[in-house]
């Protein structure tokens, strides 16, 4: 299997600017990678009229796009969710972090907690699907913040008891370019959707018949992600971190 990891939100941002930060993993059986890549290529060609368009969540998961079904971007993101994200060979795990007014510290000797929590869930998905191994591909942009991630990743898997138990995860992560890696683009859409869903407060607000199309589409897309996010004993697929998560583990 292949797992693609991306983060929506900036760990160095102020809470008033970004209320939540979301790290998501897309876990895909290798047999579906080619089909998904072809679908994304065709959607960009036929809907966006540009096969080289780097589709980022911020450009699609927003009010301007989701409130306007006549837009090509609306049509594109709907197709991506219906035919790629809701695909039978795709599974998800996410860590939802409430932002705090601190400057997080990332140590090259210690793998960040959000990555550890994703790895634990990736391991469980791979075991459930009875696959031998999984390669983890991380968006290269993440190294801008967490520069020691490659070393920390290997140290965690090799040198810690908890890491050594994650025997399905190959020890060397790959860093990919989101522009060229379809799986990272999907991870970006998943993380971006969850971030907007929580930022809008839909996790605590019941659906209302009078709510706008934007909120309805967020609920729809969240529902697709949630339906393909397996839960395991003690490991909810969408982990809602406690409010002091950053100040507890990142200072």
Written overview of the protein:
The chain is of the alpha/beta class. The protein has one domain. The chain is built from 10 helices and 6 strands. A 6-stranded mixed sheet has the order 5-4-1-2-3-6. The longest helix has 18 residues. The mean pLDDT is 93. This is DUF3800 domain-containing protein. InterPro entries: DUF3800. It comes from Desulfocucumis palustris. It holds the Pfam family DUF3800.
DSSP summary, beta strand count: 6
Q: Roughly what fraction of the amino acids lie in strands?
A: 5-15%
Order of helices and strands: EEHHHHEHEHHEHHEH
> How far is it from the N-terminal to the C-terminal residue, by CA?
34 Å
Label the structural class.
alpha/beta
Describe the largest sheet. 6 strands, mixed
Percentage of residues in helical conformation = 40-55%
Q: How many independent structural domains?
A: 1
- The parts where pLDDT drops under 50 for at least 5 residues are none
The shape, in one word, is globular
Multimerization state: single chain
Count of helical regions: 10
Rg calculated over all Cα atoms: 18 Å
Spatial arrangement of strands, main beta sheet: 5-4-1-2-3-6
Residue-averaged pLDDT? 93
Pfam family, one: DUF3800
Protein name: DUF3800 domain-containing protein
